[in-house]
Write a structure and sequence with these properties.
Layout: H1 4-16, E1 35-38, E2 55-56, H2 58-66, E3 69-70, E4 73-74, E5 117-119, E6 122-124, E7 128-130, H3 141-157, E8 194-199, E9 203-208, E10 213-220, H4 223-227, E11 241-247, E12 250-256, E13 275-284, E14 287-295, E15 304-312, H5 327-349
Length: 362
């Protein structure tokens, strides 16, 4: 009996020990985040207003996934196939037509995953967990709705002036990935939802396949030390200024000073004063639990929070963005033609100058 009690106690401790203790660790004892990971899923950042629950059953998750539209096209659309909208025999779209369906894509290119996000064993209907309704708590929702509609119109239809190379969105110019894939707040998008984490004792590098963005995060001993190493506010890089530190077995990243241009075509806006805090916790061999919260009183009425998970991926492939792209050539050629036309028009409007000549002396 004396031997049985210690054995039972040891068994109870083993059962109560968090799975986190069993995850792979690096030589310095930290949870090992190295490797290729994917956050691909059909779960959006914000919840469908008709869907009241954050967590649903597997059967309900399957039903929702089957009815999810990809790039504005229902998954069961008979034309949404490998021979779909990029079929060279279909001809050009109607001139001047508004195609909100993003039908320049076909099924071959669309790869957001085929399931809702599974987070710690739960099927989720939105990334946002706070507020409880799964919606972004905009301070000025009407103004934001107008900006969202205009941004979607430009992206979906190409109905924009495009008078110079600065006119297209950043993602079209291949400067950063679209839809917040690179962060801060790393979200899944239409395709290429793969990441590579490279972890060292003093840096965390996150390579984002879309569009090969790289976040190189210095690691400090404490949160206070990390925050003291933020760059001056005048420096506003793509993906922001990020510093990191470990809190037990969770890796934290704090990002501020995100370039304001970046937020024009991302999944959620962020003002110059916005701060995003991200947390990465490896909870098993096959899951990295990812949380982030956004504190931006200029844009939102409260701090809001989101959760998703990363799962093992095969590898991160090289992302080709501008290779073979003729769009920029056309934009630049059109811009130069407009400049020539304006210069010619200005010349026509200038008054004719009569040159006075002196009579030649004989």
């Amino acid at each position: 009996m004396r031997l049985l009690k210690p054995a039972l106690a040891a068994l109870a401790i083993a059962i109560a020990t968090p799975a986190l203790a069993q995850v792979p660790r690096t030589s310095d004892g930290k949870p090992d985040l190295n490797g290729a990971w994917s956050n691909a899923s059909l779960t959006p950042l914000t919840r469908d207003p008709a869907q009241k629950s954050l967590v649903v059953s597997e059967a309900e998750a399957t039903k929702i996934a089957k009815g999810t539209a990809l790039a504005g096209i229902a998954a069961d659309d008979p034309e949404f196939s490998n021979a779909g909208y990029s079929d060279p025999n279909k001809g050009a779209p109607e001139k001047g037509g508004d195609d909100f369906g993003l039908k320049g894509y076909d099924k071959f290119w669309v790869a957001p995953g085929d399931k809702l996000a599974q987070v710690k064993g739960e099927w989720r209907t939105s990334n946002i967990i706070e507020p409880a309704n799964g919606q972004l708590p905009y301070r000025h929702p009407e103004e934001q709705a107008k900006r969202d509609l205009e941004g979607f119109r430009r992206y979906a239809t190409g109905a924009a002036p495009y008078e110079g190379p600065e006119e297209p969105t950043l993602s079209e110019r291949c400067l950063i990935g679209f839809g917040q894939t690179g962060g801060p707040g790393m979200l899944s998008v239409l395709y290429n939802n793969n990441y590579q984490f490279v972890q060292t004792p003093d840096h965390m590098m996150i390579l984002v396949e879309m569009a090969h963005d790289a976040r190189i995060v210095p690691i400090f001993k404490t949160a206070e030390e990390a925050r003291n190493h933020h760059k001056p506010n005048v420096i506003k890089p793509w993906l922001g200024d990020t510093v990191g530190w470990w809190d037990g077995d969770t890796f934290l990243m704090e990002t501020s000073n995100v370039n304001p241009q970046q937020m024009l075509d991302q999944s959620f806006p962020l003002s110059a004063n916005g701060v995003v805090t991200e947390k990465l916790t490896r909870i098993s061999d096959k899951e990295v639990f990812y949380q982030f919260e956004v504190n931006d009183p200029d844009t939102y009425t409260q701090t809001w929070k989101a959760e998703l998970s990363f799962y093992p991926a095969t590898r991160v492939y090289e992302y080709a963005c501008h290779e073979g792209n003729q769009g920029m050539i056309g934009i630049l050629a059109g811009a130069r033609e407009l400049e020539r036309a304006k210069a010619a028009e200005a010349t026509k409007k200038q008054p004719t100058k009569v040159k006075a000549t002196k009579a030649k002396r004989r």
